[in-house]
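Need the bound structure for zinc ion, inputs here:
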Amino acid sequence: MRDAETLQVGATRELWRQVTRPGPTPSRRHPNARLLSALTGRPPGHLAGALLELRDPSPVWEAFRHNPQIGCRRCDARHPGGPVFRIFPHHRYVCTRHRYWIGSSDINRPGPFLDDFLEIVKAQRRHLRLLRRHG
Ligand SMILES: [Zn+2]
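Answer from helper R.:
Posting the output first, comments after.
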């Protein structure tokens, strides 16, 4: 099982490397619309409808939120391209997997670890479960 996971992670990273280009730093990579189009068979314009990063001109990210939002440091650490710019829904304040406070967008530093406040993690889980059930 572990070997299959390792192979899958390796294949995912290789695929990511093939459809992205480095920038602005060597550790970060950006998706390339032409390469993704060749891989998926979809026109770049259609892909840009789903992936805002592919739009030309680039979207004004600040228009989506007035403050950049910091994500879960452990989720970002696993991402091969480095920290991820995310636009969380207004109801997502906790990474329930790693128990880190990630919201709201008005904090400008990584959030605290919530191991001493498990009722907050439970409340986020309960809230997400309610959203799945009732929208
Ligand atoms: Zn996380």
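Comments: The chain has two domains: 2-59, 73-134. The radius of gyration is 18 Å.
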